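Case study: Mitochondrial carrier protein.
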Amino acid sequence: MNQTEAAIVGQPFDIVKVRLQTTTQYTGALDGATQIFKNEGPTAFYKVSIQFGAFHYARRQFSASNLSSPTNPTSDLTYGQYYLSGAFAGIANSVISGPIEHVRIRLQTQPHGAARLYSGPLDCIRKLSAHNGVLNGLYRGEAVTILREAQAYGVWFLAFEWMMNADAKRNNVPRDQISQLRVATYGGLAGEALWLSSYPFDVVKSKMQSDGLGADQKYQSMRDCFAKTYRGEGLRGFWKGIGPTLLRAMPVSAGTFAVVEMAMRAMK
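Here is what the predicted structure looks like once written out:
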């Protein structure tokens, strides 16, 4: 995920920032976030991403199914259902995140100067598609991207809900009385869980999407990439770069959940 994950979980801040810069209808950041959430819904914070819309869709479907149970009708989701809702959201998002990240990685890893392979994103898309077709070229690494997104966002939403519910039960308070600091803390920890649960998939995805083309291709498939990484680098090879990733994940994930949770409370 790398920069894509940061863009996704940091998107609410960017939306609020732009609104504050371009209009005078809000008194501040919290007021802006609250009004956007109340008037436009949670997906307004993620106009460049479909996964939050997909998550809420899956959650509503599970809730409706639970209510129709003849033995124990309830709108509450099990933790397994929260995970599956997040996984569904990740899979839906992978259709977009896969090729976007592939192009970004190609541009970031290409030689500089006269040896540059691509003049820009559109040129990169055109050449990748022309080289090996859209599915095998532009969508290279899509299988492992799907696995990563499903696991990452399944764990992300599950971890946050579990921590929030555990806090409410432990302190015998309604969920909306949990302090903003604790909400942010649980959101940050959920971001850590996201990466710890999915990072090896991300490493393999990056290796495949920065691999050579044609005769220079090193990895023939996701399984081949896993095998060669393990043989050449051992288990440590799947965790390179995890430190900076975890440092970045905490604040952006904490802020995302804090903004969304506070906005939901303001609507009540």
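For the exam, be able to explain this: The radius of gyration is 20 Å.
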